[in-house]
Design brief:
This protein is α/β, with parallel strands linked by helices and 183 residues long. It is built from eight helices and five strands, in the order βααβαααβαβαβα.
Length: 183
């Protein structure tokens, strides 16, 4: 498997998120989606890869948009069913960010979301390798984490797993199937 481009960050400023919202016309997208698009655009800027092929597969590895999901669950508890915001609900779906990525970069390949509490990154990397081995031309693999109300409590609740509250950010990689000729 060949890494064509990658980018990683652990900290995104409000100015950077505001700029990506403006540049990508993200009127209603949640913070998780804005962080995702910031990561991919940063990868492109740092690697010189301006265009992603339309047949690129998208693979997301993450807990998902926790703030948005928690907000929807709070709304379900606090309001009648007909007052739940449909846009917020649709953004609470784990694959919503992948949909924004596909639309923003004109990608028509399939997208996959890998979630879990143990190691979704390793699972998504194994999935990406399988997809490449079966003929996918490229896989855009990313993992994004955002701060939530729960983030500061994680080291207290589960110190072995979360030694510190962590920061917002993530990792994105563009992988190629060229590895078949390298072995």
């Amino acid at each position: 498997m060949k890494i064509l481009a990658q980018f990683q960050t652990s900290g995104i400023s409000e100015e950077e998120l505001k700029a990506v919202r403006k540049d990508c016309s993200l009127r209603r997208a949640d913070r998780y989606t804005a962080i995702t698009l910031h990561l991919i655009r940063s990868m492109q800027n740092n690697s010189g890869i301006a265009i992603l092929p339309d047949a690129t597969l998208i693979c997301v590895a993450s807990f998902g948009p926790l703030s948005t999901t928690f907000g929807v669950l709070d709304d379900i508890l606090d309001y009648p069913e007909d007052q739940i915001l449909p846009t917020r609900f649709s953004h609470s779906v784990h694959n919503a960010a992948a949909s924004y990525v596909a639309a923003q970069f004109h990608i028509t390949g399939p997208s996959y979301s890998v979630t879990g509490f143990e190691d979704p990154w390793s699972d998504a990397l194994a999935l990406a390798e399988s997809l490449l081995a079966t003929g996918a031309p490229q896989v855009l693999l990313f993992s994004v984490e955002e701060k939530t109300l729960l983030s500061p409590q994680l080291p207290e609740l589960y110190p072995e797993r979360f030694p510190s509250p962590g920061t917002e950010g993530g990792t994105v990689m563009l992988l190629s199937s060229d590895y078949m000729t390298e072995k």
